[in-house]
Design a protein that fits this description.
Chain A is α+β, with helices and mostly antiparallel strands and about 475 residues long. Chain A is built from 16 helices and 20 strands. The mean pLDDT of chain B is about 90. The chains are: A alpha+beta (about 475), B alpha+beta (about 350).
Amino acid sequence: MPTMEKIKLCCAKCGFVIEEYTAEELAAVPRKAKRYQYLKNKSSICPSCLASGRLSDIRVNEESGPVGAPRVAAPASSTAAPVGHEEHAVSPTPMMDAMSQGRFPSHAAELKKTKYPVQMYEQALQKRRTQWGYGGYVSLPGVASGVLVRSSARPEITKGSNFVRIMDPCGNFFSTASMRGLCDIADKYAYGLLHLLSTGGDLELLGIPTENLKPAVEEITNLGFDIGSTGDDYRTSEECIGPAKCDLTLYDTLGLRAAWYKRFLDDVQYPRFPHKIKCKFAGCPNDCVRGCQKADIFLCGVYRDAPQVDQQKVAKWVEAGGDITTVCSRCPGQAMQWESGKGLRIDEDSCMHCMYCSNKVPGVRPGGDRGVAVLVGGKLRGKFGPMLSRVLVPFIKAEGPDYKEVFDCIEKFTEVYDANARKKERVGDFILRIGIDEFYKLSGVEPAPQLLAQPRTNFFCHWEVEEVMDERKR
Amino acid sequence: MPGIGIPSLEASLPPIVKRNYGKWTSHDHIRPGVIKHDAESGEACYTVRAAMPPNARVSTPTMRMLCGLADEFSEGFFRVTQRNSIEFVGVPVGRIEELIARLAGHGFPVGGTNRSLHNMTCCTGYMHCHLAATDPAAIVKAISEMLIKEYETDCLPAGLKISGSGCINNCGEGSCADIGIVGVHRDLPPINAEKLKGCELPLVISVCPVGAIKPKGPGMVEIDPKKCIHCPACSVACAAFAPIGSANGDGVAIVVGGKSSNTGDGPALAKMVIPYLPNNPPHWPEVTEVVRKIVDTWVANAHRDERVGEWINRIGWEKFYQRTGLKMSFKVVDGYDQRSLEYVRSNVRFRW
C-alpha cells in the first residue's frame, strides 16, 4: 500500500491526538497551515489528561486508506513521568475507568478509543453536572436540516462540536460495506465515534469541524445515505421490522416507509411545520416502535375479522407442553376457550385484536381483513408532558406501492395542524388546546365508535345555530 | 448533497430476508438471545442478539470488529434494534455457539429476548447534551451490570424494559419503559441579560407551560419561583436560560409501568413513584438499589406474562408501595395535569 506522511498535533504528556493533517494538505491549504501554526504556538489544555502546555507535533508515515483512530505514544522529548512509573500514576479519568469495568459493554471504554475529548465527560461526572453548552442548528449551503452544533461550557477543553444526523436504512439493516464506509467518514472527519441508533432512529456522527462539514456531508450522500431530521419538519420515521423478519406484521412497514420518504422527502429536509412531527409505523398492535407513546403520527397495523386458528397446530403445541391455560386466562377480552378434543374457540364479540394469542400460540394468526389505524398526538414532553396518541381514523386499507389513501390522510392532518397550531406547539398540545371535538371537526374525519373510549357523561354539547335552523325547516 | 432519500430496500436487506420477505410463518425462542423464524419455504432464519454499549456509542475500531463478525457469520449484514441491541440475522444453525463465544470474547453478552431484561436504551446525557440533569448512560451501565443474570436468562415473568433519560425531554424514553429513570432539575433557570437580547421575548414568555416567565421592564423578564416547574422549556428555547442545573440540585426520578403493546392492559405511560434521588457517580447506588427492589418484588409476585404496569394495575398502588418498601410522597400526586382526553381511546383494541 502507498504510504503518506501525516502530521499529528498531540498532547506532550499523554499523546492524545488533537489535530491531524496530511503533509500535502498542509502544503496546499493555507487555512489548515495557519491553524496548524496557531495550535502549535499556543499553550493549551489537553482534553484527555488536562495537562497544560505546548502541543508536540509528530510526523509519521502511514498506510494511506482507512485506519482506525490510532493512539500514538508520547514522544521522547515529553515531560511525562518515566515509563516505569506509569502504572502507579493517577489515572486522568478515574470515573470513566470505574465505568469501563464489568461484563457489559461500556460506553466509557468506547469513548476512550476515539478522538472524543474524554475530559468533557470525566469532568461532568466529577462535578455532577454537564459540561456542554447551548446548542442549535448549523446552516450549511444546500443543507436545510441534519446538522447540529453543541457549544461547550469548557472552551479550554473543547470548543464545541457539530454533528450530523443520518437517516437510517429500512429495518435498520446495515451492510458491512456501507457501515465500513461510515466508519471511514467518522475517522476521517469526526471523532471516530458512532451513535449507532438514536431513539429517534438516526445514526449520528459526532465531532465534525465546521470546515469539514461540507465534504463530510458530500461523502455521506455519495455512500448512499441521506441526512435530515432536525428542526420543525418531519423527523426520521421509524418502522418495526415488519415483513423482513416478523410473522405477525399486518402490512408492509418497510415498503410503506420507503414510499413515505419518496412522497414526503421535502418535508423531511425543509423545516416548515409549527413544531417537529414524528412518524412511526408499527406493523401490528404489539407496537414495537413505541409509536403510541412517542409519535405525533402513528400508523398501526390492525385487522377486523377474527384471528385464524389452525387447530392442528395448536393441538400439537399443547401436546408438546404449551401453556394454553395461562394464555386463555391472560387474554384481555377473555375471548379464548380451550377444550382438549374440541380445540380452541375464539369469541368474536369479545376479541379486541390485541395480538396476545398470536404472540404466544403457534397456529393462531391474525385475520385477513387488514389495514392501518392512524393515531395522532403522542409525545413525551411538549407543554403538557407525556401523552398517548389518540385515534384519528380507525381503519384505512394500506395498499402499495404508493399508499395514496394513507398518505392523503396524513397530509390532510398536517394541513390542519399547520394552519391552526401555534409556533412550537406539538400535535398533542394543539389538540388539547383547541379541544378534541373541535379537532375532529377540523380534520373532517367520519365519526366511528372505534374512536371512543366512552361517550361523554355531561350534556354540554355545542349546537350551531344553523344546525338547529336546518332541523326546523325540515 | 442531501435529497436522495434513504437507501433502497434491495441494498440494505440481507439475502435470507429478501428470499422470504413477508413469508414468515412462525417464530420461536431457541435460547436467550437466539430467535428462530420459520418461512413458508421451510427455511429457518436464526437471529443472534447481543448487547451494545449504553446509548449505542460505538467506536470505529469496535464497529469494524462487529462488521468482521457480520461478514463471517451473517452474510455481511447486521441490524440495530429499537432497543439498541445488535442482531446478526441468518446465522447458520451450526455456528450459533461459535458466534456467541466470539461475541463474549469481545465483551458483548448475548441475551435480551423473550422473558428477560431487554437491552436498555438511554439518551446521550453528560456525553453530549447541555440539558442533562443526570448521566443515564452511566446509570444504564450500572443497572445492566447489576441485572446481567436477568439479561442472559429467561427468568422473568415477562419482558422487562428499562430506559434512562437525562432530563424530562425524555429523549431516552424513560416514560415508555417498565422502569424509567428520568433526570430532573430542581433549580430555577438563570437569566443572562446579555443573551436575552438575542431571543424573541414573546416566544420565551409563551413557551413556559405555567406562565412563570413574566416581562420585567423593557427587554427583561423575571421568573416566578413559586410557579416554576423546572422543565427546561425555556432553556431549550433561549440561550439566556442556560445552563440550568447544579450538582446538588439535579437528580433522577423513577417512573414505572410504561408499555406500548396493546396486549394485557394496553398501552400506558409510566407513572412516577419516586420524585428525586441524588446523582452519585460513577455507580449511582441509590438508583440501582431502588431498581433492584422493584424488579425483585415484581419477579416474586407477578403472574406469568404480566408486565410491571399490569402487575401494579392488579395489585394497586398501595400494595406496590407496601411490597417494595418504597416511600410515597405528595410530589407524585399530579396537580399540574388538567387534560381531559379520557373520552377518547388511546389504544387499537377495537371491536368490529
